[in-house]
Q: What sequence folds into this?
């Protein structure tokens, strides 16, 4: 099914950070666009974005609500749409399993050239969460996908309480964060490694307090350091940031100046970070915001807010030529949240 753009925002912005310190003659205008790329009357959320074999792929969850439908069931499915140019999109996959809520699909390309979809699966009974189980599926052509299969985690993992959140590949290995809760209610983070996207091994514990959960791993392009950005949902709820040299077992955490929700980021060089996340700056009015940060200091500042509101965020980010592409979902235009794609000139950063 092809999907044509429903609405487009074209905004003319002055390069932020230049408004005060530069004379008027040095100011430069940049244009970025935001297109609605999917809206079919379902609750669409939790995006991911990747380029694979010359095409763009966006994955997200579809359901009747953020978690539950009108009958109290949580049975979300994963949809993947594809586009040659980022304008016209078509569905290539809709998958799920009965009595399971498929969530947080995260796309990546494996070292052997397959498109991989890491999925978090929740199991509810009478609206009570009973299990969190990681699943994965693969495609060799971007059109035909394997059936979802359950992932395994070695060491002391609880097979009913693990959530693998976004896999990043580096020098032939995949790295991901597993956030979990133990039977005693304790929450924690593990850094995992994998060679095939199905079987994972624990590399180390990550000492992050106050209910850490969603976390993105990336690598600095020059030094090869690993960087991690972590959401926290207790205490002051501020995000955490850290970098580490190989073998990535010694971490020094820095508190970020903002709360996070569904965070993602890309590295421009070993210092400059562009991040995107849910923003809680205005109480009870969340938006999806873009931040510029420094990988070495952990300092981040908000650069601008994407058109958004209601239930929103969970971006996917890629660099395409001289643009930053960001997929995200937002509920500011319709009854159900829709999927959007922002295309932003890197010159704005």
A:
């Amino acid at each position: 099914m092809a999907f044509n753009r429903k609405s487009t925002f074209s905004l003319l912005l002055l390069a932020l950070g230049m408004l005060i310190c530069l004379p008027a003659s040095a100011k430069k205008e940049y244009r970025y666009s935001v297109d609605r790329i999917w809206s079919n009357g379902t609750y669409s959320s939790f995006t991911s974005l990747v380029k694979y074999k010359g095409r763009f792929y966006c994955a997200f969850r579809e359901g009747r609500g953020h978690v539950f439908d009108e009958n109290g069931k949580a049975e979300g499915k994963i949809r993947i749409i594809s586009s040659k140019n980022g304008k016209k999109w078509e569905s290539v996959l809709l998958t799920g399993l009965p009595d399971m809520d498929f969530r947080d699909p995260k796309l990546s390309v494996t070292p052997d050239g397959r498109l991989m979809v890491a999925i978090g699966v929740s199991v509810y009974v009478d609206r009570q969460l009973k299990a969190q189980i990681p699943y994965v599926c693969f495609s060799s052509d971007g059109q035909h996908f394997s059936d979802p299969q359950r992932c395994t985690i070695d060491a002391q993992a609880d097979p009913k309480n693990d959530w693998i959140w976004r896999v990043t590949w580096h020098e032939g290995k995949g790295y991901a964060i597993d956030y979990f809760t133990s039977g005693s209610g304790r929450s924690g983070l593990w850094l995992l490694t994998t060679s095939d996207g199905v079987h994972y091994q624990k590399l180390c514990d990550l000492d992050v307090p106050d209910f850490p959960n969603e976390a993105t791993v990336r690598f600095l392009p020059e030094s090869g350091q690993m960087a991690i950005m972590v959401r926290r949902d207790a205490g002051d709820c501020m995000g955490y940031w850290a970098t580490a040299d190989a073998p990535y077992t010694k971490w020094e955490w820095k508190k970020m100046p903002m709360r996070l929700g569904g965070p993602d980021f890309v590295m421009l060089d070993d210092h400059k970070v562009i991040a995107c996340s849910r923003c809680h700056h205005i109480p009870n009015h969340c938006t999806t915001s873009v931040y510029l940060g420094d990988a070495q200091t952990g300092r981040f500042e908000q650069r601008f807010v994407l058109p958004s509101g209601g239930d929103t965020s969970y971006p996917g980010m890629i660099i395409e030529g001289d643009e930053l592409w960001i997929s995200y979902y937002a509920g500011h235009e319709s009854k159900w949240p829709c999927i959007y794609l922002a295309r932003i000139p890197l010159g704005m950063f």
